[in-house]
From TrEMBL, chain A:
GO MF, one example: lyase activity
Organism for this UniProt entry: Novosphingobium mathurense
Taxonomy of the source species: Bacteria, Pseudomonadati, Pseudomonadota, Alphaproteobacteria, Sphingomonadales
Highest rank taxon of the organism: Bacteria
Protein name: C-deglycosylation enzyme beta subunit
Keywords, comma-separated and alphabetical: Carbohydrate metabolism, Lyase
Ranges of residues in domain C-glycoside deglycosidase beta subunit: 2-114
Automatic annotation (TrEMBL), chain B:
SUPFAM superfamilies reported for this sequence: Xylose isomerase-like
Domain of life: Bacteria
Protein name per UniProt: Xylose isomerase-like TIM barrel
Length: 155, 379
């Protein structure tokens, strides 16, 4: 769902902390027709210009709170990511991205479902590998974006 | 029979911030003659799980201002919410009970649970449904059908106990008899062959007439999404659970005899034929007394050739379904549930479907088939 609109097209930028570029970020929406409890959100398949950025270097900013790693998001069992709300996906990469256009291959992993599934116990142990389509909710294929880097900004 | 709209129909307009919740309610109250029912998906329309007291006041203000009535609230459950264990039935019940209290707070009469909600959970929530004066309806969604255990166990419970608090929410997708043209168009944009679309429509017709090389019973207990995943895995690996081997093998053979050099996507397209429920209209009539409310599911309203201003979904048997509900004495709400917008969401916003127009067309059809006279009403 909303394939070309899950990342806001003008949102890609480098993240700055105390004057230093520590990584980059983009604004994202949920690939569903409803919000979900935040704990169900397990990260992204994210490949930029051929480089993979795994969930370990990703953090997620939502509900007016500072960015949290997906280990911490996992514990947000009573907090909801509402359907209307934009969130920010931050990626740790010292120096950030180079200026200009980038090819982004993208898939969100949210382990929401219609009831019980055969994969439930397995996903309690560890969530599905991102990018496989498993747990990818209503957009079960990787979507490619071409986005231009904007002015860097303080996180 | 009464008519309304599930605001699910406007999910795309909400995503793009083109219609607020109030705009959606106003559209139902002011632009759809004869309609007053409102249905929502709680996690789509509300600040969840607690929208706050100010919102609740505003909500009732809108209902009064636009002459609308909260009918059914659709709720979900995600069994991995706690992440360190799979939710037990008790925990699913706790979530359902909380959602029921929210529904009551917003004035809804019914709560729709997912087709995958265990009947044990519905029964466990029954005392709360009585206390809150709510009805619980299990959605019957394609490829599930009215025939089968999931419906039978609710009907038996209701008959044995005499309760009218547990019932069914039929989704009109179960009256579908072929894949919708907008889904087939989307597959073709992704590279599927036109022959695969034709084969899918042909196989659907054979299944409907009982001329297919396999029976659908093995697939109707699965959700459409899970069935698609299983079939894709079968095409890739040749493996599947034993019950699905016969239909999947037959599907593969049908594809290979009807589509030249089929690719992965072509197999998937032909496989859409088995997502049709082919449920019985006679059974719908017999079960009408157990219906809480209906999801008037559709995917594309197109003008009926030779009838300007009259519309149909050419993949769903609305006439048969409405007649069966009428004959069975159903007096509740059919709430429009437009879902075809997702099949153009691989495109740009300008090329996507217009939800407002699609719902207005659907209401033209509903009024005509049900026989709702609005000649005296100022639209």
């Amino acid at each position: 769902m909303f394939d070309n609109y899950l990342i806001r097209s003008d949102s890609l930028r480098n993240d700055v902390i105390d004057g230093e570029v520590v990584g980059f970020s983009m604004a994202v929406r949920i690939a569903n027709y409803r919000g979900v409890f935040l704990s169900l959100h397990t990260g992204y398949f994210l490949e930029i210009d051929g480089t993979d950025y795994p969930r370990e270097v990703q953090s997620f900013e939502v509900n007016g709170k500072p960015p949290r790693g997906f280990d911490e998001i996992k514990t947000a069992i009573n907090e909801h990511w509402d359907y209307d709300d934009e969130a920010f996906l931050h990626v740790r990469k010292p120096g950030g991205l180079l200026p200009g256009e980038h090819e982004i291959r993208f898939q969100q992993c949210v382990i929401a479902a219609y009831g019980y599934l055969p994969t439930d116990e397995e996903w309690v142990k560890s969530p599905p590998k991102t990018g496989t389509g498993a747990g990818s909710d209503k957009t079960p294929h990787i979507v490619t974006y071409h986005l231009t880097l904007n002015e860097a900004a303080e996180v | 029979m009464k008519i309304g709209v599930s605001l699910y129909s406007y999910q795309q307009s909400q995503f793009f911030r083109e219609l607020t919740l109030e705009d959606q309610i106003r559209e139902v109250g002011e632009n759809l003659p004869g309609a007053d029912g409102i249905e929502i998906v709680d996690e789509m329309s509300l600040r969840y799980p607690d929208p706050g007291e100010d919102f609740v006041r505003q909500w009732f203000g809108w209902m009064e201002k636009y002459g609308t009535i909260p009918v059914t609230m659709d709720v979900s459950f995600d069994v991995l919410q706690f992440r360190d264990h799979v939710m037990s039935y008790e925990e699913v019940t706790e979530r359902l009970v909380r959602d029921m209290r929210l529904a009551k707070r917003l004035g809804f009469s019914n709560v729709r649970v997912l087709s995958t909600c265990p009947v044990e959970v519905m029964i466990a929530a029954l005392p709360e449904a009585e206390r809150l004066d709510l009805r619980l309806g299990k959605e019957v969604h394609q490829p599930m059908r009215l025939e089968g255990r999931q419906v039978q166990e609710i009907v038996e419970f209701a008959e044995t106990t005499g309760t009218d608090r547990l019932g069914l929410v039929p989704d009109f997708g179960i009256f579908g008899f072929r894949p919708t043209e907008v889904l087939l168009d989307q597959y073709e944009r992704r590279g599927a062959k036109a022959e695969a679309s034709a084969a899918s429509v042909e196989l659907s017709a054979r299944l409907r007439e009982g001329r297919a090389p396999f029976d659908l019973d093995d697939v109707t207990n699965q959700t459409a999404g899970n069935l698609r995943v299983a079939y894709k895995a079968y095409i890739a690996t040749g493996e599947c659970e034993p019950g699905l081997a016969q239909p999947f093998t037959a599907l593969k053979e049908f594809t290979e005899t009807h589509v030249p050099e089929p690719g992965e996507l072509d197999y998937v397209v032909v496989g859409e034929a088995i997502m049709q429920s082919n449920t019985s209209l006679d059974l719908m009539r017999e079960l009408a007394g157990y219906v809480v409310s209906c999801h008037g599911k559709f995917n594309n309203m197109s003008e009926i050739p030779g009838k300007p201003g009259c519309f149909q979904d050419l993949a769903i048997d609305y006439e048969g379904a409405i007649d069966a509900l009428k004959a069975g004495g159903f007096k509740g709400y059919v709430n429009t549930e437009y879902e075809g917008q997702r099949y153009s969401q691989d495109r740009t916003r300008a090329e996507m479907m217009d939800e407002v127009e699609q719902v207005r067309r659907h209401h033209e059809m509903l009024r005509r088939l049900i026989g709702i006279d609005v000649t005296g009403e100022v639209a």
